[in-house]
Amino acid sequence: MKLSLRDTIKGVIGKTLLTFIFVISMTMFFILYPLLADPDYYKNLILESTYKMTQLNVNYKNSEPVFFPFPGIELNEVTVSKADDEIIHVQKLRIEIYYGVFVGKPLELRKIYLNTGTIEITREKDESFPLFEKLSEQSLDEPNLSSKNKSKVQIDNQEESPEELYFSKVFVNLVNQIEIKNITILFDDKLYSRKINLYLWGTTLHIDHDLRNIDFYLYGKLNNEPITLSVDFLFAEDKLTYETLRLEGEFQFQNVRGIDLHDILIIFTRGDLRFVKTSGTIPFYKRDESKIYAVVDQLHVQDLALKDGKTFADGHVSTLINYDSNEDKLSFANIIVEWKGKSKLYGSGYVNFLKPPLSPTVSFEGTSDYLDVPSIIKVSKIWIDPDFEKSILTRGLPSTGYVNRMNVYLNFHFRNLTIVDFKADSLKLNVHYAKRKLNINRYELKVYDGEVIGTGEYRWLQPVGLTLKGEIKHVLIAPVLSDIFKISPITGSIDSEFVILSPSDTEDGLVDNLQIVGNINAKNGELLSYTNILKPINSIGSVINLKKIDFSRATPYNELKFDFQYANENIEIKNFALKADGIAGSGGGKIGFNKAIDMKFTIGFPGVAGKALKLPIIYRGTYGVSSPFIDPIWLGSVYAGTIFLASPAGAAVGGIAGSAMSDYVNRAVENVTGGIQKSWKGIKSIFGGKEEEEKKEENTKEKSP
């Protein structure tokens, strides 16, 4: 009998359903039978297999089997330990396996899930980690290898280089998926006296053996500050190499402290980076065989410090970092550093790591919108001369002689510079370092409508020290002094040539041994306030025919020249020459950084009297407090001359002499009223001025009613 199409379809469906039911029934039988015969069968099987793989003991309060979505066990109040040492305590541990174990395949862990627990890690002062050392120990229960097997392992290890790693071998015994939730890792670091709390709210690790892919995700808090890390690793081949690696990832963090990174930051011995805080987001990726990139976008950096522990800096850093294995070069592009109110810098550069006999190169160039030089110097000093032996992460690195082999090229064009109160429009700087010698090929400073240009060098080899040569052209004096000292006692423009020397290779030594030799040529200005060295002349101008020249406010000059030498906080001035309308001056002396001044000048004047007289002026005492005065010995000699010449004018000058020695020249001049009577009073003021004044006061009292 021929069946209809409808009956045929029903028959096929029915047979399929029966087959499916049979398969399901048999599967459930194989799954459930061991449980019915021994309820702890799968639990024991999983725990035994876990122990064989990890050598870890799992103790728990109670358990229950899990069937869906994958079979396994769920344990509560779990303690994981090795030997008698507890490693972790969690409220819940779930282990899932693949179904293949039910049809005779070896047990394979699919997933481990941990929920709510604590892991305690300690580092001792001897830099040891007891927990890690315990985990690395082989269990006493591990079967001993036979001599034949040991020999085989040794041969295999000799034949296979440690660099020859393969995905299929390295990850073969690792669980495919780990999920961690609400776990706290407590790190007690006795070496650096710190405690780190890493809270893992949600962390997953997934390994795909077929795709050779590892996916890692972490979300939690580091010392109560949020932190997120996600990375996707992919290997183009089974062989694990840098060339076969591909990755995409992102790291987000807030207020990560320097003390948390002390293991690496400790190498920067000139700074104290325990207090620094950083916040930001850094994506990174590697999409080909050679180049890996990291994008630093507005990384917030706060509270840097030098050894004094005083924190400073609040800025943002952005750059694109790229390492190219083919060129063995680390590049920095689109660098932006902004410290609001202090500096904003732009730049780019690279560092390569060529091996001997080639010379590695460091090259950077940059510019600025504005730049506070002392602040940048403070930041730069932190990173100079790191000591790699300080950190266990860098200790023992083989020496490459990098410092002695490398070439450093720096080319900067900074704008709007500030050095304390000193301001400059721009600075061009070209520097080359090689073989422990820093060559300043050229510097060009635009400042106060003029410029300073020059060259120099700094040597770490004999003869050590700094040599800097320069030339100043047409720099305005008044704004320089106004910015630095808040007063402008000198005006005009200045030209100069100078040489700066310091035979030292330390920071303190550079300052202590600093020497400067040069010359000054100032033009078309005035000496004001306490620099007005000709002010005393104004007091005797009427006597020696200088009525038309008034020095009470300033000493005007057409040209002011002198040579100078600085050493040990003292400036020695030689060959001083002043030229003004009808006036010429010469002199020299010393000025100390303690404001002590000892200088002498000789001034020649116009007119008949001026040609006959050379007026000596002394400036002695405290610079800015004391006033210049006419040499009293000279005034005395003028007075003596009047005795023999019987000159009324000479007598008047003689009167000034006594007053100059007791007070200030200006006050003496006020007592001179003219004629023979004035001369007589002037003479008496030298020998008995005090007595005359007392008699005058007594007569005044007697006449009073």
Automatic annotation (TrEMBL):
The keyword Plastid does not apply. Pfam families: AsmA. The chain crosses the membrane at residues 12-36. This is AsmA family protein. Residues 21-166, 405-555 form the AsmA domain. GO terms for biological process: regulation of protein targeting to membrane. One of its GO terms (cellular component) is plasma membrane. InterPro entries: AsmA, AsmA-related. It comes from Leptospira levettii. Keywords: Membrane, Transmembrane, Transmembrane helix.
